[in-house]
Every structure is written in structure tokens, then in C-alpha cells.
Design goal:
CATH class of one domain: Mainly Alpha
Largest sheet: none
Order of helices and strands: HHHHHH
CATH topology of one domain: Four Helix Bundle (Hemerythrin (Met), subunit A)
């Protein structure tokens, strides 16, 4: 006669006597790692203003500064700050993208090497931390160019854009 405990043990086995199978919840958690890391990186990239390769970020920063009443001289100084940071930012962005790709490959592999996934996660966090430090330097240097009133206007614009301003959903996007 078979007991409930025996059936439970067999249900948790892979059928070949190789021990318990990871739960679906655990697999979903592993798959969520690259998504979460990508979101962190995207957030850092959006915070860079002039730090990127032109396009949307440059136009967005131009709009923010114009809305705050920044002078052409202030805009030029801030743009120069971000241009000066580009040599540091570009390799960090590339490194983080490469790690994120490797992490996705490791998770999609037929056999998941958990130690490798953990190593890549740690590398990604170190890279994101370095990226964040450079971006923070740029934000501080940029903020020092603006008056306190201009900084408040820029902050309000950013919060409204993110949905955290007056009437915005404070939990949106997070």
C-alpha cells in the first residue's frame, strides 16, 4: 500500500530518481532576473539627459531646461558636462548589455548553471552601480548650473512625466 508521503515524494521527483524538480514559481523567478536588470538599466539610461547618443534624451533634456527657463549658456554648460561623461558611459552601457545578453543565454540554456547565473547577476549589479555613479555625477554637476527654482521646475517636470506629479499614480511604472 502506498502512502501519501510516497506519492508526494514521487510527484516532486523527475521520474528518474534525480531528486526534486524545481517548482514553476522558481523558474519564473529565474526568468524575471533579466527583465528586472533591464528595467534598472533603462531607468539609469533615461536619467542621463544629454548622456546618450542624441535623439530622444537630448530633445527631452532640451525641453526640460527650456521649461525651467534655463539660459543658452546654462544649456551649453550642461550639454558639455554630459558630453564629457560619454567616454565613461558608453563602455558601461555596452558592458551591461553584454552581461544582460549572457544572463538571458544562461537562463535559456538546456541546463541552467546556477553559479554562472549568480556570477552574471553580481557582475550586472556592479556595472549598474558604476553606471549609476557616473550618472549621479552628471546630475549633480548639471544641478549646480541651475538655480534652486530651475531645479524645482525640472524635478516637477520629471515627476509629471513619470506619473508621480499632481494627480499622477504614485505606483505607476514601479
Amino acid at each position: 500500500m502506498e502512502t501519501n508521503q510516497t506519492r508526494s515524494s514521487e510527484a516532486a521527483s523527475d521520474g528518474n530518481g534525480n531528486g526534486p524538480r524545481p517548482s514553476r514559481r522558481r523558474w519564473w523567478a529565474l526568468l524575471a532576473i533579466p527583465v528586472a536588470l533591464g528595467a534598472l538599466t533603462l531607468g539609469a539610461a533615461r536619467a542621463q539627459g544629454f548622456g546618450g547618443g542624441g535623439g530622444f534624451r537630448k530633445e527631452r533634456m532640451e525641453h526640460l531646461l527650456s521649461s525651467a527657463g534655463a539660459t543658452d549658456a546654462q544649456k551649453a554648460q550642461i550639454q558639455a558636462i554630459w558630453q564629457g561623461l560619454r567616454p565613461e558611459l558608453q563602455p558601461l552601457r555596452k558592458q551591461e548589455a553584454d552581461i544582460r545578453h549572457q544572463l538571458g543565454q544562461a537562463i535559456a540554456a538546456p541546463t541552467i548553471d546556477q553559479a554562472k547565473v549568480e556570477q552574471l547577476r553580481k557582475q550586472s549589479m556592479q556595472t549598474v552601480d558604476k553606471l549609476s555613479a557616473v550618472v549621479t555625477r552628471g546630475m549633480l554637476a548639471s544641478a549646480q548650473i541651475l538655480t534652486p527654482a530651475q531645479r524645482q521646475t525640472v524635478l516637477q517636470q520629471i515627476e509629471q512625466h513619470r506619473g508621480h506629479g499632481p494627480g499622477g499614480d504614485h505606483d505607476a511604472g514601479e
